[in-house]
Sequence to fold (270 residues):
Amino acid sequence: MIFTQTILKHQEEFQKMVDAGALVVVNHSGGKDSQAMYQVIKSLVPADQIEVVHADLGEFVEWGGVQDHIRNNIDTELHIAKAIYKDGSKKELLDMIEKRQMFPSAAQRYCTSDLKRGPCEKVIRRLANERDTKLIISCMGFRAEESPARAKVDTWKLDPRNQTAGRTWVTFQPIHDLTTEEVFKIIENAGQKRHWAYDQGMKRLSCCFCVLAGEQDLKIAAKLNPTLLDKYLDLEKKIGHTFRHGKSLADIVGVQVKPVQQDLFQEVAI
Fold:
């Protein structure tokens, strides 16, 4: 068993819900924290109560091999959460940015709400209904070390938006107290390898070009994903909005902007 300080802090309520048959969901990005979190939960919860959910961020946007990496390092089915428009078509991040004429930001993280939180919660509700359970522990891999904001996150919190239909839905941060070194050690002790992007120098793994990523991560991502970089730079030109407020992705990663392909612009007859 792997007991973090955060789990020990909430052990009584956590164990009570597990003993009562709660569905325990590992929200898995494919990154190091999710990978370590799964190992922690796996060591404490019966296998038949664990489900793993991954938010599909869309074509090109995710790091290569993320979904296969997750499947290769879990012992259960991987449930893919996809954001869908009302007409049935799949939401893609770059398409959403073009429609909104703006990139996401720390203040307007529509990428999180539309592509991650909403679709994942929908899958979790379905899984709970299939199991006929009203008890849900939704595990997230936030760590205090990552940022001042994440350091302040409630580690055991009832989710008011999902406290409906008689459900008890808790959002849990089981590895909140762990350091990066401890996270990698858990992965190593499990006999697993981390996603290949970390070996290239990446510190975090989400969208290849996350608006919240550090400058060094963005520079590494640009070198590893030049085709996707061009798509982002073309999109900046097309919508007239920069990757960050007043700063182009080209300025951040230090590349010269290529002329935008003519077919990206469509003249509208008046």
